[in-house]
Specification:
- There is one protein chain.
- Strand 2 and strand 3 (40-46) form a beta hairpin.
- The chain has a 4-stranded antiparallel sheet with strand order 2-3-1-4.
- It has a single domain (2-73), classed as Lrp/AsnC effector binding domain/regulation of amino acid metabolism (RAM) domain (Alpha-Beta Plaits), CATH 3.30.70.
- Helix content is 24%, strand content 34%.
- It has helices at residues 15-23, 49-60, and strands at residues 2-10, 28-33, 40-46, 66-73.
- It is an alpha+beta fold.
């Protein structure tokens, strides 16, 4: 299983509309609205890199009001807890 975070820029004021459209996609696991450089962050899953490419290219990028996309595929390793106990 491949996971990726997709950072989206969307047309101003269209966040809720885009979220509704993305919610219908099977590959989408989680979605968040962000107030930073990107407007929406989406976590997706796919069986293969080809399936990931299909989801991003033909579904997410093709969604009305999506202006730009940055895809961050995740490695198979788990993230370590990087919280420091040192002050």
């Amino acid at each position: 299983m491949i996971h990726a975070f997709i950072m989206l820029n969307v047309e101003a004021g269209s966040e809720e509309n885009v979220l509704k459209k993305l919610k219908a996609l099977d590959a989408v696991e989680e979605m968040y609205v962000s107030y930073g450089v990107y407007d929406i962050i989406v976590k997706v899953k796919a069986e293969t890199i080809g399936d990931l490419t299909e989801a991003v290219t033909n579904k997410i990028r093709a969604t009305d009001q999506v202006q730009s996309v940055l895809t961050l595929p995740m490695t198979s390793g788990r993230a370590r807890n990087l919280t420091s106990t040192h002050k």
